[in-house]
Specification:
There is one protein chain. The chain has three helices and six strands, in the order ααβαβββββ. It is an alpha+beta fold and 188 residues long. A four-stranded antiparallel sheet has the order 1-4-5-6, covered by helices on one side. It starts with a helix and ends with a strand. Helices cover 41% and strands 16% of the residues. The chain crosses the membrane at residues 21-42.
């Protein structure tokens, strides 16, 4: 009799029940959804971080250009959105470059090149700029030797409502605030 109970017990315990399989699948799906959401959050954070790094680079770039053209320092002041037209004379400082530019020509070229880089004009797909910042604007304020560069761009989500200065540098056409990077330095 004891042997019969043992055989019967083994016969009913040979596999998983459908309920056990469904519970395991539900737990697995919940875990996979969590991992997928974590991946999305990481990608957004990576994009935001990359955009801020780019903004920092562009602010430093124009400051270095202004240091090389100190005589025209006050003329770099203004708001920039990537709409400057190409100057008639290119003033690239490259190996083998033979054109000499005046400080005025250098300033025009610096601002044009800077705008083209932060709107991503060097990288295009289907006629659309894909490099640079997302919907960028920039402002340069000069007070004596103190130079402040503010670079604003559109983040993935709306920002906290920060702008720079009274002219609301960084405000887009719809009035929504965006991310902003501000760098201030002294050029002597």
């Amino acid at each position: 009799m004891c042997k019969l109970k043992q055989l019967t017990y083994q016969r009913f315990q040979q596999g998983f029940s459908l309920i056990e399989v469904l519970v395991a699948l539900v737990i697995l799906v919940i875990g996979l959804i969590g991992i997928f959401n974590l991946h999305i959050v990481a990608k957004r954070g990576s994009f935001e971080s990359f955009q801020q790094t780019q903004a920092s680079y562009y602010a430093n770039d124009i400051i270095n250009r202004m240091k090389l053209n100190r005589t025209r320092l006050t003329n770099y002041s203004g708001d920039y959105t990537g709409r400057l037209s190409k100057p008639s004379k290119g003033c690239d400082v490259a190996v083998g470059a033979v054109s000499l530019c005046s400080p005025v020509e250098t300033q025009a070229w610096d601002l044009y090149q800077w705008e083209q880089s932060f709107i991503g004009a060097a990288e295009t797909v289907g006629g659309q700029n894909i490099g640079g910042l997302d919907s960028p604007t920039a402002c340069i304020d000069i007070d004596g030797n103190t130079v402040t560069v503010a670079v604003a761009w559109r983040g993935i989500r709306e920002g906290a409502g920060t702008t720079y200065s009274d002219n609301e540098c960084g405000k887009d056409d719809l009035g929504l605030r965006r991310r902003i990077f501000v760098l201030s330095t002294v050029i002597i």
